[in-house]
TrEMBL record:
This is ABC transporter. PANTHER family: HEMIN IMPORT ATP-BINDING PROTEIN HMUV. SMART domains: AAA (SM00382). It comes from the Bacteria. Belongs to the ABC transporter superfamily. Keywords: ATP-binding, Nucleotide-binding, Translocase, Transport. It comes from Sphingopyxis fribergensis. GO terms for molecular function: ATP binding; ATP hydrolysis activity. Residues 4-238 form the ABC transporter domain. It holds the Pfam family ABC_tran. Part of the ABC transporter complex HmuTUV involved in hemin import. Responsible for energy coupling to the transport system.
Length: 257
């Protein structure tokens, strides 16, 4: 199990303040979606949790300062699926997924039986066992998304952060990825995903953080966060939010006037 705690976190990139005074805590067994308009600071906040950008305030992983934690230790605790990954090397799927074991390997060491077993489990959970001998650069977008997800799962970390994992995927593959994220949280992992599709976020997430201009605007369950008034204010859209079903559904009508 792992926890991530943010206290008054701020991030400045160049001369621009991107994240301002964010405080939040995340625990195991929960899928949290970070939502908000483009440029709101969502991805930067996710990267701050991984100590990939310098941040003011405090980011603590299991009550340890994330920036002071050895990189390998942090990578063993939090797996990461970055956005917009382009594959350049013609590796097989099995070898690509195997890269997820790097945080567990000493320099110049070889993959052990325990690593091989972890790779098999990750490919099974991401449903890519049948792709194991395919060249990763030749995969479709949906196949590639599942394989990159499997690489993160191969770490077997107790936490997972996915930054815009639905980008460039068709609706069916978006559902596949959200099903995988939901399954990880149901299995006890701490899962955080940066998302743009509000209906999918409402359907799958236990909790949403709505961010605008680098600040948390709302933090709670999807029905609590996604209101028509808030969508108008944050996204500048007119929308109807229906809450009568199992999860909220959102219909947008256009720019607010």
């Amino acid at each position: 199990m792992v926890t991530i705690t943010l206290n008054d976190v701020g991030v400045t990139l160049g001369r621009r303040a991107v994240v301002h005074g964010v405080s939040a805590a995340f625990g195991p067994g929960t899928l949290t979606g970070i939502v908000g308009p483009n440029g709101a600071g969502k991805s930067t906040l996710a990267r701050a949790m991984l100590a990939l950008v310098s941040a003011s305030g405090s980011v603590r992983v299991d009550d340890v300062d994330a920036a002071a934690m050895p990189r390998g230790e942090l990578a063993r605790r939090i797996a990461y699926v970055p956005q917009g990954q382009t594959l350049h090397w013609p590796l097989t799927v099995e070898r690509l997924v195997g890269l997820g074991r790097l945080p567990h390997l000493a320099p110049m060491s070889r993959i052990a039986d325990t690593d091989t077993a972890a790779i098999e489990r990750a490919m099974a959970r991401a449903d890519v066992l049948d792709l194991r001998d395919r060249i990763a650069t030749e995969l479709s977008g949906g196949e590639r998304a599942r394989v990159l997800f499997a690489r993160a799962l191969a770490v077997e970390a107790p936490a997972l952060i996915a930054d815009e994992p639905l980008a460039s995927l068709d609706p069916g593959h978006q559902i596949d990825v959200m099903d995988m994220l939901r399954a990880e949280a149901a299995g006890g992992a701490l899962v955080i995903a940066v998302l743009h599709d509000l209906t999918l976020a409402a359907r799958y997430c236990d909790r949403l953080l709505l961010i605008d201009s680098g600040r948390i605007v709302a933090d709670g369950t999807p029905p609590e966060v996604l209101t028509a008034e808030r969508l108008r204010k944050v996204y500048g859209i007119d929308a109807r939010v229906e809450t009568g079903g199992e999860w909220p559904t959102i219909t947008t009508f256009g720019r607010a006037r």
